Amino acid sequence: MTKIESQLVFLPSPGIGHLISTIEFAKLIINRDHRLSITILVMKTPLQTVTPSFTDSIFSTKRLHVINLPQPQITNSDLNAPGSFITTLIHTYKPYVRDHVTQLVNSPHSPRLGGFVVDMFCTPMIDVAREFHVPAFVFFTSSAASLGLVLHLYTLRERDGFNATLLKNTDTELVIPSFVNPVSAKVLPSFVLNKEWEPAFLILGEGLKKADGIIVNSFEELESHAVHFLNLADNNNIPIYPVGPILKINDDNDVVIVKWLDDQPHSSVIFLCFGSMGSVHEDQVREIARALEDSGARFIWSLRKSPPKGLTNMAQPTEYAPQELIDVLPYGFLDRTAETGRVIGWAPQAQILAHQATAGFVSHCGWNSTLESIYFGVPIATWPLHAEQQINAFQLVRELNMAVEITLDYRVEFKVGSNTLLGADKIERGIRDLMENDEVKKRVKDMSDESRKTLTLGGCSYSHLGRFIDSIIN
Ligand SMILES: O=c1ccn([C@@H]2O[C@H](COP(=O)(O)OP(=O)(O)O[C@H]3O[C@H](CO)[C@@H](O)[C@H](O)[C@H]3O)[C@@H](O)[C@H]2O)c(=O)[nH]1
Protein backbone atom coordinates (compact mmCIF):
# COMPACT_ATOMS: atom_id res chain seq x y z
CA MET A 1 0.00 0.00 0.00
CA THR A 2 1.32 3.46 -0.89
CA LYS A 3 2.30 5.53 2.12
CA ILE A 4 0.53 8.89 2.47
CA GLU A 5 3.34 11.42 2.32
CA SER A 6 1.58 14.71 2.36
CA GLN A 7 -1.78 16.21 3.24
CA LEU A 8 -3.58 19.26 1.94
CA VAL A 9 -6.22 21.41 3.60
CA PHE A 10 -8.99 22.68 1.31
CA LEU A 11 -11.15 25.69 2.09
CA PRO A 12 -14.02 26.07 -0.39
CA SER A 13 -16.30 29.08 -0.13
CA PRO A 14 -19.89 28.26 0.79
CA GLY A 15 -21.74 28.81 -2.52
CA ILE A 16 -22.71 25.68 -4.43
CA GLY A 17 -21.02 27.03 -7.59
CA HIS A 18 -17.74 27.02 -5.67
CA LEU A 19 -18.19 23.97 -3.44
CA ILE A 20 -18.91 21.48 -6.19
CA SER A 21 -15.80 22.12 -8.25
CA THR A 22 -13.53 22.40 -5.20
CA ILE A 23 -14.69 19.05 -3.86
CA GLU A 24 -14.36 17.44 -7.29
CA PHE A 25 -10.85 18.88 -7.56
CA ALA A 26 -9.96 17.24 -4.25
CA LYS A 27 -11.26 13.91 -5.57
CA LEU A 28 -9.28 14.34 -8.79
CA ILE A 29 -6.05 14.80 -6.81
CA ILE A 30 -6.44 11.83 -4.52
CA ASN A 31 -7.43 9.56 -7.40
CA ARG A 32 -4.39 10.67 -9.34
CA ASP A 33 -1.82 10.32 -6.56
CA HIS A 34 -2.10 7.92 -3.66
CA ARG A 35 0.59 9.70 -1.69
CA LEU A 36 -1.78 12.56 -0.90
CA SER A 37 -4.68 12.98 1.49
CA ILE A 38 -7.02 15.96 1.74
CA THR A 39 -9.13 17.49 4.49
CA ILE A 40 -11.92 19.78 3.31
CA LEU A 41 -13.10 22.26 5.93
CA VAL A 42 -16.62 23.29 4.94
CA MET A 43 -17.84 26.75 5.96
CA LYS A 44 -21.54 27.61 5.93
CA THR A 45 -23.62 30.74 5.69
CA PRO A 46 -27.12 31.24 7.09
CA LEU A 47 -28.30 32.30 3.61
CA GLN A 48 -28.13 29.15 1.63
CA THR A 49 -30.97 26.74 1.08
CA VAL A 50 -29.27 24.20 -1.19
CA THR A 51 -25.78 24.12 0.28
CA PRO A 52 -26.43 22.47 3.68
CA SER A 53 -28.08 19.38 2.19
CA PHE A 54 -25.31 19.21 -0.39
CA THR A 55 -22.45 19.39 2.10
CA ASP A 56 -24.14 17.01 4.55
CA SER A 57 -24.32 14.45 1.75
CA ILE A 58 -20.57 14.35 1.15
CA PHE A 59 -18.91 11.49 2.96
CA SER A 60 -15.36 11.12 4.09
CA THR A 61 -13.17 8.37 2.71
CA LYS A 62 -9.75 7.16 3.82
CA ARG A 63 -7.85 9.95 2.08
CA LEU A 64 -10.62 12.54 1.77
CA HIS A 65 -11.95 13.95 5.02
CA VAL A 66 -14.88 16.33 5.00
CA ILE A 67 -15.38 18.37 8.15
CA ASN A 68 -18.44 20.58 8.45
CA LEU A 69 -17.36 23.52 10.59
CA PRO A 70 -19.99 24.97 12.95
CA GLN A 71 -22.08 27.84 11.64
CA PRO A 72 -20.81 31.09 13.18
CA GLN A 73 -23.01 33.90 14.41
CA ILE A 74 -23.46 36.50 11.69
CA THR A 75 -25.44 39.68 12.27
CA ASN A 76 -28.12 41.12 9.98
CA SER A 77 -25.92 44.08 9.14
CA ASP A 78 -23.18 41.67 7.99
CA LEU A 79 -25.69 39.91 5.79
CA ASN A 80 -26.71 43.14 4.15
CA ALA A 81 -23.22 44.29 3.28
CA PRO A 82 -22.45 42.25 0.18
CA GLY A 83 -18.89 43.50 -0.32
CA SER A 84 -17.75 42.66 3.15
CA PHE A 85 -20.06 39.78 4.04
CA ILE A 86 -17.92 36.99 2.65
CA THR A 87 -14.79 38.56 4.13
CA THR A 88 -16.46 38.84 7.55
CA LEU A 89 -17.48 35.22 7.28
CA ILE A 90 -13.97 34.08 6.40
CA HIS A 91 -12.44 36.09 9.23
CA THR A 92 -14.97 34.64 11.66
CA TYR A 93 -13.92 31.16 10.59
CA LYS A 94 -10.17 31.73 11.01
CA PRO A 95 -9.94 30.47 14.63
CA TYR A 96 -11.90 27.30 13.73
CA VAL A 97 -9.58 26.61 10.82
CA ARG A 98 -6.48 27.28 12.91
CA ASP A 99 -7.72 24.83 15.59
CA HIS A 100 -8.60 22.10 13.12
CA VAL A 101 -5.32 22.33 11.29
CA THR A 102 -3.40 22.31 14.58
CA GLN A 103 -5.20 19.09 15.53
CA LEU A 104 -4.45 17.62 12.12
CA VAL A 105 -0.74 18.26 12.22
CA ASN A 106 -0.44 17.13 15.84
CA SER A 107 -2.31 13.87 15.47
CA PRO A 108 -0.14 10.72 15.63
CA HIS A 109 1.28 9.48 12.28
CA SER A 110 -0.14 12.52 10.55
CA PRO A 111 1.47 13.07 7.15
CA ARG A 112 3.38 16.27 6.52
CA LEU A 113 1.15 19.30 5.82
CA GLY A 114 1.82 20.12 2.17
CA GLY A 115 -0.26 23.26 1.77
CA PHE A 116 -3.64 24.99 1.74
CA VAL A 117 -5.93 25.25 -1.28
CA VAL A 118 -8.26 28.18 -0.66
CA ASP A 119 -11.18 29.28 -2.79
CA MET A 120 -10.80 32.61 -4.62
CA PHE A 121 -13.13 34.26 -2.06
CA CYS A 122 -11.28 32.78 0.93
CA THR A 123 -7.88 34.34 0.33
CA PRO A 124 -7.70 35.86 3.86
CA MET A 125 -7.06 32.23 4.89
CA ILE A 126 -3.65 32.50 3.19
CA ASP A 127 -2.54 34.17 6.43
CA VAL A 128 -3.45 31.01 8.35
CA ALA A 129 -1.42 28.89 5.89
CA ARG A 130 1.53 31.21 6.55
CA GLU A 131 1.22 30.53 10.30
CA PHE A 132 1.83 26.85 9.50
CA HIS A 133 4.70 27.74 7.13
CA VAL A 134 3.13 25.98 4.15
CA PRO A 135 2.30 27.22 0.64
CA ALA A 136 -1.18 28.49 -0.16
CA PHE A 137 -2.77 27.94 -3.55
CA VAL A 138 -5.89 29.73 -4.73
CA PHE A 139 -8.60 27.73 -6.49
CA PHE A 140 -10.18 30.04 -9.07
CA THR A 141 -13.63 28.68 -9.91
CA SER A 142 -14.17 30.76 -13.03
CA SER A 143 -12.40 31.21 -16.37
CA ALA A 144 -8.75 31.95 -17.05
CA ALA A 145 -9.92 35.06 -18.94
CA SER A 146 -11.74 36.32 -15.80
CA LEU A 147 -8.69 35.58 -13.70
CA GLY A 148 -6.66 37.65 -16.15
CA LEU A 149 -9.22 40.45 -15.92
CA VAL A 150 -9.09 40.57 -12.12
CA LEU A 151 -5.29 40.53 -12.07
CA HIS A 152 -5.12 43.22 -14.74
CA LEU A 153 -7.65 45.56 -13.12
CA TYR A 154 -6.05 45.06 -9.71
CA THR A 155 -2.64 45.92 -11.16
CA LEU A 156 -4.10 49.09 -12.74
CA ARG A 157 -5.65 49.96 -9.40
CA GLU A 158 -2.44 49.46 -7.43
CA ARG A 159 -0.17 51.11 -9.95
CA ASP A 160 -2.31 53.95 -11.36
CA GLY A 161 -5.19 54.30 -8.91
CA PHE A 162 -7.58 53.18 -11.69
CA ASN A 163 -11.13 52.96 -10.32
CA ALA A 164 -13.34 50.57 -12.32
CA THR A 165 -16.49 51.48 -10.36
CA LEU A 166 -16.55 54.80 -12.28
CA LEU A 167 -17.28 52.80 -15.45
CA LYS A 168 -20.63 51.51 -14.22
CA ASN A 169 -23.42 52.27 -16.72
CA THR A 170 -20.96 53.58 -19.32
CA ASP A 171 -20.08 52.23 -22.78
CA THR A 172 -16.34 52.51 -22.18
CA GLU A 173 -14.33 49.85 -23.96
CA LEU A 174 -11.29 48.43 -22.21
CA VAL A 175 -8.31 46.53 -23.50
CA ILE A 176 -7.94 43.53 -21.20
CA PRO A 177 -4.98 41.37 -22.22
CA SER A 178 -6.70 38.07 -21.37
CA PHE A 179 -9.37 38.86 -24.00
CA VAL A 180 -8.76 39.14 -27.73
CA ASN A 181 -11.40 41.86 -28.27
CA PRO A 182 -11.96 45.12 -26.40
CA VAL A 183 -14.33 44.55 -23.49
CA SER A 184 -17.30 46.86 -22.89
CA ALA A 185 -17.71 48.09 -19.30
CA LYS A 186 -21.31 46.81 -19.58
CA VAL A 187 -20.08 43.22 -19.27
CA LEU A 188 -17.60 43.69 -16.44
CA PRO A 189 -18.34 41.62 -13.31
CA SER A 190 -20.62 43.18 -10.68
CA PHE A 191 -17.86 42.82 -8.08
CA VAL A 192 -15.70 45.11 -10.25
CA LEU A 193 -18.38 47.71 -11.06
CA ASN A 194 -20.24 48.04 -7.76
CA LYS A 195 -18.86 50.39 -5.13
CA GLU A 196 -20.21 48.22 -2.32
CA TRP A 197 -18.23 45.22 -3.63
CA GLU A 198 -14.96 47.14 -3.78
CA PRO A 199 -13.57 45.73 -0.50
CA ALA A 200 -14.14 42.19 -1.80
CA PHE A 201 -12.51 43.01 -5.15
CA LEU A 202 -9.43 44.44 -3.43
CA ILE A 203 -9.13 41.42 -1.14
CA LEU A 204 -9.47 39.12 -4.14
CA GLY A 205 -6.78 40.93 -6.16
CA GLU A 206 -4.42 41.11 -3.21
CA GLY A 207 -5.04 37.45 -2.35
CA LEU A 208 -4.32 36.28 -5.91
CA LYS A 209 -1.04 38.16 -5.90
CA LYS A 210 -0.01 36.61 -2.57
CA ALA A 211 -0.72 33.04 -3.69
CA ASP A 212 1.98 30.46 -4.28
CA GLY A 213 0.03 29.26 -7.31
CA ILE A 214 -3.41 29.64 -8.87
CA ILE A 215 -5.42 26.62 -9.93
CA VAL A 216 -8.03 27.49 -12.57
CA ASN A 217 -11.09 25.41 -13.42
CA SER A 218 -10.52 25.71 -17.13
CA PHE A 219 -8.40 24.15 -19.84
CA GLU A 220 -5.77 25.46 -22.17
CA GLU A 221 -7.42 24.09 -25.30
CA LEU A 222 -10.48 26.27 -24.55
CA GLU A 223 -8.70 29.39 -23.33
CA SER A 224 -5.33 29.35 -25.04
CA HIS A 225 -5.20 33.15 -25.37
CA ALA A 226 -5.94 33.80 -21.68
CA VAL A 227 -3.63 31.05 -20.43
CA HIS A 228 -0.84 32.41 -22.59
CA PHE A 229 -1.38 35.88 -21.11
CA LEU A 230 -1.41 34.52 -17.55
CA ASN A 231 1.89 32.78 -18.09
CA LEU A 232 3.46 35.95 -19.45
CA ALA A 233 1.82 38.61 -17.44
CA ASP A 234 3.02 40.85 -14.71
CA ASN A 235 1.32 38.61 -12.18
CA ASN A 236 4.35 38.19 -9.91
CA ASN A 237 5.30 35.02 -11.83
CA ILE A 238 2.72 33.04 -9.92
CA PRO A 239 2.44 29.52 -11.34
CA ILE A 240 -0.92 28.96 -13.07
CA TYR A 241 -2.48 25.50 -13.20
CA PRO A 242 -5.46 25.21 -15.59
CA VAL A 243 -6.64 21.72 -14.60
CA GLY A 244 -10.28 21.67 -15.74
CA PRO A 245 -12.93 21.06 -16.69
CA ILE A 246 -13.64 19.86 -13.15
CA LEU A 247 -17.27 18.80 -13.10
CA LYS A 248 -19.68 16.77 -11.05
CA ILE A 249 -21.46 14.81 -13.71
CA ASN A 250 -22.52 11.42 -12.42
CA ASP A 251 -24.64 12.08 -9.37
CA ASP A 252 -28.08 13.09 -10.64
CA ASN A 253 -30.67 10.36 -10.88
CA ASP A 254 -34.02 11.87 -11.81
CA VAL A 255 -35.90 9.03 -13.49
CA VAL A 256 -39.00 11.11 -14.24
CA ILE A 257 -37.14 13.73 -16.25
CA VAL A 258 -35.02 11.15 -18.02
CA LYS A 259 -38.11 9.14 -18.93
CA TRP A 260 -39.67 12.30 -20.40
CA LEU A 261 -36.48 13.10 -22.32
CA ASP A 262 -36.32 9.51 -23.60
CA ASP A 263 -39.69 10.10 -25.26
CA GLN A 264 -38.57 13.27 -27.09
CA PRO A 265 -36.93 13.34 -30.54
CA HIS A 266 -33.15 13.52 -30.77
CA SER A 267 -31.80 17.05 -30.26
CA SER A 268 -35.18 18.75 -29.85
CA VAL A 269 -35.36 20.05 -26.26
CA ILE A 270 -34.22 23.44 -24.95
CA PHE A 271 -33.13 23.46 -21.32
CA LEU A 272 -33.44 26.70 -19.33
CA CYS A 273 -31.63 27.06 -16.02
CA PHE A 274 -30.06 30.00 -14.19
CA GLY A 275 -27.75 28.35 -11.67
CA SER A 276 -27.93 28.04 -7.92
CA MET A 277 -28.46 31.77 -7.29
CA GLY A 278 -30.45 32.74 -10.36
CA SER A 279 -34.07 33.79 -10.60
CA VAL A 280 -35.99 36.50 -12.43
CA HIS A 281 -38.98 38.57 -11.36
CA GLU A 282 -42.53 37.61 -12.24
CA ASP A 283 -42.97 39.90 -15.29
CA GLN A 284 -39.85 38.37 -16.73
CA VAL A 285 -41.12 34.85 -16.04
CA ARG A 286 -44.18 35.61 -18.20
CA GLU A 287 -42.02 36.88 -21.09
CA ILE A 288 -40.00 33.65 -21.02
CA ALA A 289 -43.20 31.61 -21.03
CA ARG A 290 -44.50 33.54 -24.05
CA ALA A 291 -41.22 33.07 -25.90
CA LEU A 292 -41.28 29.34 -25.26
CA GLU A 293 -44.84 28.99 -26.49
CA ASP A 294 -44.24 31.16 -29.55
CA SER A 295 -41.07 29.31 -30.51
CA GLY A 296 -42.91 25.99 -30.37
CA ALA A 297 -39.73 24.45 -28.93
CA ARG A 298 -39.82 21.50 -26.56
CA PHE A 299 -38.35 22.56 -23.24
CA ILE A 300 -37.36 21.80 -19.67
CA TRP A 301 -37.45 24.97 -17.61
CA SER A 302 -35.90 25.11 -14.17
CA LEU A 303 -37.98 27.91 -12.64
CA ARG A 304 -37.36 28.99 -9.06
CA LYS A 305 -38.74 31.77 -6.88
CA SER A 306 -36.69 34.92 -6.20
CA PRO A 307 -35.80 35.62 -2.58
CA PRO A 308 -37.55 38.73 -1.21
CA LYS A 309 -35.82 41.88 -2.47
CA GLY A 310 -33.77 44.01 -0.13
CA LEU A 311 -34.02 41.72 2.89
CA THR A 312 -30.78 39.91 2.35
CA ASN A 313 -28.27 39.72 -0.40
CA MET A 314 -26.86 36.56 -1.89
CA ALA A 315 -29.84 34.55 -0.68
CA GLN A 316 -30.73 31.61 -2.89
CA PRO A 317 -34.00 31.19 -4.75
CA THR A 318 -36.53 28.70 -3.40
CA GLU A 319 -39.00 26.28 -4.99
CA TYR A 320 -42.49 27.43 -6.08
CA ALA A 321 -45.45 25.64 -4.49
CA PRO A 322 -47.72 24.10 -7.21
CA GLN A 323 -50.38 26.83 -6.96
CA GLU A 324 -47.75 29.61 -6.93
CA LEU A 325 -46.36 28.18 -10.15
CA ILE A 326 -49.76 28.24 -11.83
CA ASP A 327 -50.23 31.84 -10.68
CA VAL A 328 -46.88 33.13 -11.85
CA LEU A 329 -47.15 31.65 -15.36
CA PRO A 330 -49.52 33.00 -18.07
CA TYR A 331 -53.05 31.62 -17.70
CA GLY A 332 -53.27 28.03 -19.06
CA PHE A 333 -49.53 27.83 -19.90
CA LEU A 334 -48.94 24.51 -18.14
CA ASP A 335 -51.94 22.90 -19.86
CA ARG A 336 -51.06 24.20 -23.30
CA THR A 337 -47.46 22.98 -23.04
CA ALA A 338 -48.20 19.72 -21.22
CA GLU A 339 -47.09 17.68 -24.25
CA THR A 340 -44.03 19.70 -25.18
CA GLY A 341 -42.51 20.97 -21.97
CA ARG A 342 -41.74 20.49 -18.31
CA VAL A 343 -41.46 23.23 -15.69
CA ILE A 344 -39.40 21.98 -12.76
CA GLY A 345 -37.56 23.38 -9.73
CA TRP A 346 -33.94 22.43 -8.99
CA ALA A 347 -32.82 20.53 -12.10
CA PRO A 348 -30.69 17.42 -12.56
CA GLN A 349 -28.65 19.65 -14.84
CA ALA A 350 -25.81 17.32 -15.79
CA GLN A 351 -28.26 14.52 -16.56
CA ILE A 352 -30.30 16.80 -18.81
CA LEU A 353 -27.27 18.17 -20.64
CA ALA A 354 -25.95 14.65 -21.16
CA HIS A 355 -29.19 13.45 -22.76
CA GLN A 356 -29.32 13.10 -26.54
CA ALA A 357 -32.73 14.81 -26.68
CA THR A 358 -31.22 18.07 -25.39
CA ALA A 359 -30.50 20.53 -28.21
CA GLY A 360 -29.52 23.74 -26.43
CA PHE A 361 -29.15 25.46 -23.08
CA VAL A 362 -30.52 28.90 -22.18
CA SER A 363 -28.04 29.62 -19.42
CA HIS A 364 -26.96 32.33 -17.02
CA CYS A 365 -23.39 31.41 -18.00
CA GLY A 366 -22.16 30.53 -14.52
CA TRP A 367 -18.77 29.00 -15.15
CA ASN A 368 -19.72 25.48 -14.01
CA SER A 369 -22.77 25.50 -16.29
CA THR A 370 -20.61 26.77 -19.13
CA LEU A 371 -18.09 23.96 -18.67
CA GLU A 372 -20.83 21.33 -18.28
CA SER A 373 -22.48 22.50 -21.49
CA ILE A 374 -19.20 22.38 -23.39
CA TYR A 375 -18.36 18.96 -21.95
CA PHE A 376 -21.67 17.54 -23.16
CA GLY A 377 -21.46 19.41 -26.49
CA VAL A 378 -24.63 21.46 -25.91
CA PRO A 379 -24.62 25.03 -27.31
CA ILE A 380 -25.66 27.89 -25.02
CA ALA A 381 -27.91 30.91 -25.52
CA THR A 382 -26.54 33.51 -23.11
CA TRP A 383 -28.59 35.20 -20.42
CA PRO A 384 -26.29 36.38 -17.63
CA LEU A 385 -27.68 37.62 -14.30
CA HIS A 386 -25.02 38.13 -11.61
CA ALA A 387 -21.36 38.07 -10.69
CA GLU A 388 -19.00 37.52 -13.67
CA GLN A 389 -21.67 35.90 -15.88
CA GLN A 390 -21.78 38.84 -18.34
CA ILE A 391 -18.09 38.49 -19.12
CA ASN A 392 -18.51 34.71 -19.50
CA ALA A 393 -21.35 35.37 -21.97
CA PHE A 394 -19.15 37.87 -23.85
CA GLN A 395 -16.34 35.35 -24.03
CA LEU A 396 -18.62 32.57 -25.28
CA VAL A 397 -20.29 34.69 -27.97
CA ARG A 398 -17.68 37.21 -29.09
CA GLU A 399 -14.38 35.49 -28.38
CA LEU A 400 -15.09 31.79 -28.83
CA ASN A 401 -18.14 31.72 -31.13
CA MET A 402 -19.48 28.92 -28.98
CA ALA A 403 -22.82 30.42 -27.97
CA VAL A 404 -25.62 32.53 -29.39
CA GLU A 405 -26.68 35.74 -27.71
CA ILE A 406 -29.98 36.41 -26.01
CA THR A 407 -28.30 39.13 -23.98
CA LEU A 408 -24.76 39.86 -22.81
CA ASP A 409 -25.40 42.65 -20.34
CA TYR A 410 -28.65 41.84 -18.50
CA ARG A 411 -27.90 42.26 -14.81
CA VAL A 412 -29.77 41.48 -11.60
CA GLU A 413 -28.50 43.30 -8.53
CA PHE A 414 -29.01 41.32 -5.36
CA LYS A 415 -30.63 44.15 -3.43
CA VAL A 416 -32.76 45.79 -6.08
CA GLY A 417 -33.45 42.96 -8.50
CA SER A 418 -33.47 43.68 -12.23
CA ASN A 419 -34.80 46.87 -13.75
CA THR A 420 -34.72 45.60 -17.31
CA LEU A 421 -37.36 43.45 -18.91
CA LEU A 422 -36.30 41.27 -21.80
CA GLY A 423 -39.16 40.97 -24.25
CA ALA A 424 -40.54 37.62 -25.45
CA ASP A 425 -39.52 38.45 -29.06
CA LYS A 426 -35.88 38.75 -28.20
CA ILE A 427 -35.91 35.55 -26.14
CA GLU A 428 -37.70 33.68 -28.91
CA ARG A 429 -35.12 34.85 -31.48
CA GLY A 430 -32.36 33.54 -29.22
CA ILE A 431 -34.11 30.18 -28.86
CA ARG A 432 -34.53 29.84 -32.65
CA ASP A 433 -30.90 30.80 -33.22
CA LEU A 434 -29.85 28.23 -30.65
CA MET A 435 -31.69 25.51 -32.55
CA GLU A 436 -30.45 26.59 -35.98
CA ASN A 437 -26.88 27.89 -35.70
CA ASP A 438 -24.86 25.00 -37.13
CA GLU A 439 -21.52 26.75 -36.88
CA VAL A 440 -21.89 27.24 -33.13
CA LYS A 441 -23.11 23.66 -32.73
CA LYS A 442 -20.03 22.35 -34.53
CA ARG A 443 -17.59 24.43 -32.51
CA VAL A 444 -19.14 23.24 -29.26
CA LYS A 445 -19.01 19.60 -30.38
CA ASP A 446 -15.33 19.96 -31.29
CA MET A 447 -14.55 21.58 -27.95
CA SER A 448 -16.50 18.86 -26.18
CA ASP A 449 -14.00 16.34 -27.56
CA GLU A 450 -11.11 18.53 -26.44
CA SER A 451 -12.60 18.92 -22.95
CA ARG A 452 -12.54 15.15 -22.49
CA LYS A 453 -9.09 14.63 -23.99
CA THR A 454 -7.42 17.33 -21.92
CA LEU A 455 -8.06 15.35 -18.74
CA THR A 456 -6.34 12.22 -20.02
CA LEU A 457 -2.67 11.33 -20.42
CA GLY A 458 -1.12 13.72 -22.94
CA GLY A 459 -3.79 16.42 -22.39
CA CYS A 460 -2.87 19.89 -21.12
CA SER A 461 -4.98 19.69 -17.94
CA TYR A 462 -3.59 16.25 -17.14
CA SER A 463 -0.06 17.59 -17.31
CA HIS A 464 -0.84 20.80 -15.34
CA LEU A 465 -2.35 18.66 -12.57
CA GLY A 466 0.84 16.59 -12.55
CA ARG A 467 2.87 19.79 -12.20
CA PHE A 468 0.71 20.91 -9.30
CA ILE A 469 1.03 17.58 -7.48
CA ASP A 470 4.81 17.57 -8.00
CA SER A 471 5.03 21.00 -6.41
CA ILE A 472 3.24 19.64 -3.31
CA ILE A 473 5.18 16.39 -3.00
CA ASN A 474 8.56 17.97 -3.67
O1 LIG B 1 -31.20 23.62 -10.93
C1 LIG B 1 -29.98 23.51 -10.87
C2 LIG B 1 -29.11 24.63 -10.80
C3 LIG B 1 -27.76 24.42 -10.77
N1 LIG B 1 -27.25 23.15 -10.77
C4 LIG B 1 -25.79 22.93 -10.71
O2 LIG B 1 -25.21 23.90 -9.87
C5 LIG B 1 -24.01 24.40 -10.44
C6 LIG B 1 -24.17 25.88 -10.68
O3 LIG B 1 -22.94 26.44 -10.95
P1 LIG B 1 -22.75 27.67 -11.95
O4 LIG B 1 -23.30 27.35 -13.25
O5 LIG B 1 -21.32 28.05 -11.94
O6 LIG B 1 -23.66 28.81 -11.39
P2 LIG B 1 -23.80 29.54 -9.94
O7 LIG B 1 -24.41 28.62 -9.02
O8 LIG B 1 -24.51 30.79 -10.24
O9 LIG B 1 -22.26 29.83 -9.56
C7 LIG B 1 -21.55 30.89 -8.95
O10 LIG B 1 -20.18 30.44 -9.03
C8 LIG B 1 -19.67 30.29 -10.36
C9 LIG B 1 -18.26 29.77 -10.25
O11 LIG B 1 -17.41 30.72 -9.67
C10 LIG B 1 -19.74 31.61 -11.11
O12 LIG B 1 -19.28 31.43 -12.44
C11 LIG B 1 -21.17 32.12 -11.09
O13 LIG B 1 -21.24 33.37 -11.74
C12 LIG B 1 -21.65 32.24 -9.66
O14 LIG B 1 -22.99 32.72 -9.60
C13 LIG B 1 -23.78 23.63 -11.73
O15 LIG B 1 -22.92 22.56 -11.46
C14 LIG B 1 -25.16 23.10 -12.09
O16 LIG B 1 -25.13 21.85 -12.78
C15 LIG B 1 -28.09 22.05 -10.84
O17 LIG B 1 -27.63 20.90 -10.87
N2 LIG B 1 -29.43 22.28 -10.89
What does it look like?
The longest helix has 25 residues, at 82-106. The chain has helices at 16-32, 51-56, 76-79, 82-106, 126-131, 144-160, 190-193, 198-210, 224-232, 255-262, 282-295, 322-328, 333-336, 349-354, 367-375, 389-399, 424-436, 438-453, 460-473, and strands at 6-11, 36-42, 64-68, 112-119, 136-140, 173-174, 183-184, 213-216, 240-242, 269-273, 298-302, 341-344, 358-363, 380-382, 403-405. It is globular and about 65 Å long. Helix 6 packs across helix 8 (198-210). It contains 19 helices and 15 strands. It binds uridine-5'-diphosphate-glucose. Uridine-5'-diphosphate-glucose binds next to helix 1, helix 14 and helix 15.
Give the SSE layout:
Elements: E1 6-11, H1 16-32, E2 36-42, H2 51-56, E3 64-68, H3 76-79, H4 82-106, E4 112-119, H5 126-131, E5 136-140, H6 144-160, E6 173-174, E7 183-184, H7 190-193, H8 198-210, E8 213-216, H9 224-232, E9 240-242, H10 255-262, E10 269-273, H11 282-295, E11 298-302, H12 322-328, H13 333-336, E12 341-344, H14 349-354, E13 358-363, H15 367-375, E14 380-382, H16 389-399, E15 403-405, H17 424-436, H18 438-453, H19 460-473
Parallel strand pairs: 1-2, 1-4, 2-3, 4-5, 5-8, 8-9, 10-11, 10-13, 11-12, 13-14, 14-15
Antiparallel strand pairs: 6-7
Helix pairs in contact: 4-8, 6-8, 6-9, 11-17
The protein binds uridine-5'-diphosphate-glucose.
